Structures are given as C-alpha cells and as structure tokens.
Amino acid sequence: MKSSFWNAGHKPTLFSAFLYFDLSFMVWVLLGPLAVQISADLHLTPAQKGLMVATPVLSGALLRIVMGVLVDHLKPKKAGIIGQVVVLAALLFAWINGIHTYQQTLLLGIALGVAGAAFAVALPLASRWYPPEHQGTALGIAGAGNSGTALAALFAPGLAAAYGWNNVFGLALIPLAFAFVVYLLLAKDSPETPPSKSLHQYLNVLKDKDAWWFMFFYSVTFGGFVGMASSLTIYFHDQYGLTPIVAGYFTAACVFAGSLVRPLGGNVADRVGGIRTLLLMYALAATFLFILSFGISQPFLGLAVVVAAMLSLGMGNGAVFQLVPQRFRKEIGVMTGLVGMAGGVGGFYLASSLGYSKQVTGSYETGLMIFSALAVLAMIGLSSVKTRWRTTWGSVTATTAKV
C-alpha cells in the first residue's frame, strides 16, 4: 500500500469507522448463525428460516436510505451515534424479555436492520477524509467491517450451545458497548462536508441512470456476500449434516475470506481501474456459484468453492466503491445509502430464495443458479457502460483516479 495513503486522511476516524461497521455487521446477521438452534426450538420450516435470516438484511437495506439522509443533515458521526443507541436498546430488550415466537424473530430482525444501516454512515465518515486517488483503499478498509459477519458465525453457535441462544443477544452488548465508546472518542467529521440537500435533491439523484447501474452492480456483489453470510450456517448444516458449531466455523472461514479481501479489491481497483477489476470479479463469482449449484458432495470441497465465490464477491464490493465516489463525490452520503440499500435488497433476495428453493425443490440448486445468472447479467451491463464512463466522468481530464 502506498505510503502516501497513510499520510492522507484521518487514521483514528478510519479505524473507528471500521470498528463501528465491523461490530454492527456482527449483530446485523446474528440470526443467521443462530438459525439452526432457533428453528429447532420454534419449529420453523425451511422457508421460515430463510425469511428469518433475510429480514434483517431487507430492513438494513431500506434503513440505509434513512441513514444516508441523516448523514447529510446531521453529519456522519451524529448519525452513527443514533444508530448505535437504537441497536443497543433492541438487543437489551430482546435479551431481557426473550424471543418466543417466529413473529418475534422477525420483529427483532427489523430492529437489527439498523445495524446493517451502519454501512451508510461508516463509509461517508471515512470517504470524506481522503482524496480521489485513495478512495478505493480508504473505503476498502472501512468496508472490511464486513468481517463482523464472520465473528457472528464464529462465536454465536458455540455461545448459544453453552448459554442458550437468547443469552447471545445479551453477550453481544459487550463488544457493541466497547465500539460505541471508541467511536465517541476517536471518530471525527471531515471539514469537507457537502451542504445538506432537500428531499427533492435526493430524489434527483435517482434520475441519473448511473445511480441505477451502481445500485444493480452492488446488489449482486454485496447482495451475494451478505445473503450467503446469512444463509451459510443453514446451508452447511442441511447440505452436509454438520453441527451448528462446525457449520458456524465453515461459515466464518467463508465470510472472513470475503471480508478481508475487500480492501484488496479497492486497492487493486485504485491501481488498475474499478471497471476492469469488477468485470473479472463478476466472471469468477458467476463461475463458482454455478459450480456450487450442482450440490458438491464433499464438505471441504464445497467449502473451497464457497470461499472462492466469497473472495470474488468481496473484492467486487471494494471495486464498486472505488467507482462510486468518483462519479458521485458531492452526493456520497445519499449514494452510499442508495447503493447500500440495493446491496441489502440483493442479500434479502438470495437469503430468502435459498430457503424457498430448499422447501419447494428439496435443494438449493435453483436459487444458486439464478444468482449466478445475475452475476453474468451484471458483467454484461458493466461492459455496456464502460466506454461511456471512461470517456466522461472517468476520463483522465475529470479525475486523477483510474476508472
């Protein structure tokens, strides 16, 4: 990584944005690693399990719009404080009162969506401190908070076996409180703060076709990542008969892989261009998801294929957000919310469709094949706009970054 990157920006804010993002994502997908134990106690069908783990993803997607608006009106730090207080209160309530019905799991999932909306705060908080040539790296580091989903998979099933799954909600309050204090002490809003915009101005962004392209591209990369992260514990348990704890370890390996390469994806995009990087990642993701759809019989071979798919999706996430600030730097708050929302919608689709696919057909083949096809469609779409992007806002006369 270039030394000039470390001399730019504000490192304490970058670290606090990462930590806030990381632990927020840990609780955002918490129902996924606990799904095997919860569904056993509440007697849930495969479709209900799929919807349970998908609900926080959809809630987080929609709330990213709200958080994007708050970021532009209240500044990122204050918006992040509000979001963290809501999540802490929701987990405390669930821990003390308990979760006893399927409907209550859905209500908790909606509340946990606020944690998923941290995306719309952490990325602008970090982005506004860095110049265009370092956007991919800065947002890759902040966005590596995706790894929080691996923490949930790594620890939640074991803690649930030892203390009961409802007590996991209380235990999650400990790291969240620590991250909240760090955020209060270290995070700082950049002096480069765009003026607040009216709701009409926000809606105007949606009139730009490039906004819709970015929303679609991220719905495939991040949607695939978070949808898989939410569903893999169930998948490994159903497909290979693994215990919840071992299935959680498998899931953690996959999610760590996809999370840790997000900064690499952003850094590679800074060096060779976001479009070229993203095209390759779509091709790889489509290939591995297609292979996975055939129902690999050996668990460790299946794990290897899922890891490869998650590596591709994780690097793709970094590449998308190398491009977004180049095109929408003045609207980065609302665009982070919109693009993040689309990513969450993609994750909701994947997680819920896998559950329905399992219930209707008895396997995950159909759901995985459809998502593989979406990656191919995204590759075709990106190929169709790359020339226009490189000759307009991505030209050498318009930005110092490689597009």
UniProtKB/TrEMBL annotation:
It comes from Novimethylophilus kurashikiensis. The keyword DNA-binding does not apply. The keyword DNA repair does not apply. It comes from the Bacteria. This is MFS transporter, NNP family, nitrate/nitrite transporter. GO terms for molecular function: nitrate transmembrane transporter activity. GO terms for biological process: nitrate assimilation. The chain crosses the membrane at residues 12-31, 51-72, 79-100, 106-126, 138-162, 168-187, 211-236, 242-261, 273-294, 300-320, 332-351, 363-382. Keywords: Membrane, Nitrate assimilation, Transmembrane, Transmembrane helix. It is a multi-pass membrane protein. It is found in: Membrane. Belongs to the major facilitator superfamily. Nitrate/nitrite porter (TC 2.A.1.8) family. Its main location: membrane. Pfam families: MFS_1. One of its GO terms (cellular component) is membrane. InterPro entries: MFS, MFS_dom, MFS_trans_sf, NO3_transporter. Residues 12-390 form the Major facilitator superfamily (MFS) profile domain. PANTHER family: HIGH-AFFINITY NITRATE TRANSPORTER 2.3.
